[in-house]
Design goal:
Blueprint: E1 2-11, E2 18-28, H1 31-45, H2 53-77, H3 96-105, H4 107-125, H5 129-150, H6 157-181, H7 183-190, H8 194-218, H9 223-248, H10 264-294
Antiparallel strand pairs: 1-2
Helix pairs in contact: 2-3, 2-4, 3-4, 3-5, 3-10, 4-5, 5-9, 6-7, 6-8, 6-9, 6-10, 8-9, 8-10, 9-10
C-alpha cells in the first residue's frame, strides 16, 4: 500500500497572489484503485467551474484530435480508390471517425473536427483549396453535425421511418435514374452495364438499410445513432453532389474535368452514400460501446 498526494493551490479571490496549498492523501491498495482514482481526478479536472470554460477547452482539444485523426487515417485508408472516371470523391472508410467524436463530444466537435480534417486531407490529395472549402468542408460539417445532434435526441418511430425513407429515396432515385434512364452515360461513368451498376448500388445501399432495421430491432440503444447516420450522410452526400456539379460549371475539377452533366449529381450522391454508410453502421456502435464502458460519463444524455 502507498499514498497518492493530490496538492491544490489556493489563490486570494481578489489577487493573483498565492495564499498556500493543501494536500490530500489517497490510499492506494492495488492497480485497479490507481485506475479508479486517476479517472476520478481527471474527471474532476474537466468539470466546468464558473461557467463552461473548462468544457470548451476539452472540446477544442477534441476537435484537434478529431481533425488530425480524420486527415491522416483518411488518407491512409482511402486505398487510392475514387469514384469511377471522374475521380473526385474518394473511397472513405474514415467517415466513422468524426461520427464517433460527434456522438461522444457533441455536434460541434464532430462537425468542426470533420471540416478541418477533410480540408487537411484534400490539401494532401488534390490541393484545390477552393474546391475543398466549397464541397468538402461544407458537406462534412453538415453531415457530422447532424449525426451528433440527432443521436442525442429522442426519436419516435415516425422519425425512424422518415430517416430510412430518406436513405431509400437518395439511393433508389439516383441509381434508377442514372442506370435505367441514362444507360449509356451510366456505363461511361462506372464502366459497368446498367444492370450490374443497379445491382451494385442498390445491393450495398439496401444491405446498409437492412442493417439499420436490424439495429433498431435487436439493439434499440443504437437506433438514434443509426438514423442520425442515414440522415447526416444523406445530407452530406447531397451537398457533395450538387456542389461538385456547380463547381465544374465554372472551374475545372481535379483531372481537368469541366461542365459535368446534371445527372452526375445523382451519381456522386449514390457513390458517397453507398461507400460510407456501411462503415458508419458496422464500425461505429462497437467503438462507441467500448468508449462508454471505459468512460461512462461520455454517454450522451438523450434530449426531447
Amino acid at each position: 500500500m502507498f499514498r497518492l498526494i493530490v496538492r491544490r493551490t489556493h489563490a486570494h479571490p481578489n489577487s493573483s497572489a498565492e495564499r498556500g496549498f493543501s494536500e490530500k492523501f489517497i490510499e492506494i491498495k492495488d492497480v485497479q484503485t490507481i485506475h479508479t482514482k486517476l479517472l476520478s481526478i481527471i474527471g474532476h479536472s474537466f468539470t466546468p467551474k464558473n461557467g463552461d470554460a473548462s468544457l470548451k477547452a476539452v472540446e477544442v482539444a477534441m476537435i484537434g484530435i478529431c481533425a488530425a485523426s480524420y486527415a491522416v487515417i483518411g488518407r491512409l485508408t482511402d486505398l487510392g480508390i475514387v469514384a469511377p472516371v471522374v475521380g473526385v470523391v474518394a473511397f472513405w472508410p474514415a467517415a466513422v471517425i468524426p461520427a464517433i467524436f460527434a456522438v461522444l463530444f457533441g455536434p460541434w466537435t464532430g462537425g468542426i473536427g470533420a471540416a478541418i480534417g477533410i480540408f487537411l486531407r484534400d490539401m494532401l490529395f488534390h490541393g484545390n483549396a477552393l474546391l475543398s472549402l466549397s464541397a468538402g468542408v461544407t458537406s462534412n460539417f453538415a453531415c457530422f453535425f447532424l449525426i451528433g445532434y440527432i443521436s442525442r435526441r429522442k426519436l419516435d418511430w415516425k422519425k425512424i421511418v422518415l430517416g430510412i425513407g430518406i436513405g431509400f429515396f437518395i439511393v433508389g432515385l439516383g441509381a434508377s435514374i442514372s442506370t435505367v434512364f441514362l444507360p449509356s452515360e451510366s456505363s461511361a461513368f462506372t464502366g459497368l452495364s446498367p444492370t450490374d451498376s443497379m445491382i451494385l448500388f442498390l445491393g450495398v445501399s439496401a444491405g446498409s438499410l437492412i442493417l439499420i432495421g436490424l439495429i433498431v430491432r435487436f439493439w434499440p440503444e443504437w437506433k438514434n445513432y443509426a438514423i442520425a447516420s442515414v440522415i447526416g450522410l444523406g445530407v452530406g452526400s447531397t451537398i457533395i453532389g450538387f456542389v461538385l456539379w456547380l463547381f465544374s460549371q465554372f472551374l475545372p475539377l481535379p483531372g481537368d474535368f469541366s461542365n459535368a452533366p446534371t445527372y452526375f449529381i445523382l451519381l456522386w450522391i449514390v457513390w458517397t452514400f453507398a461507400t460510407e454508410i456501411p462503415f458508419l453502421m458496422v464500425v461505429g456502435p462497437p467503438v462507441l460501446k467500448a468508449c462508454y464502458k471505459a468512460f461512462p460519463s461520455l454517454a450522451p444524455q438523450v434530449k426531447e
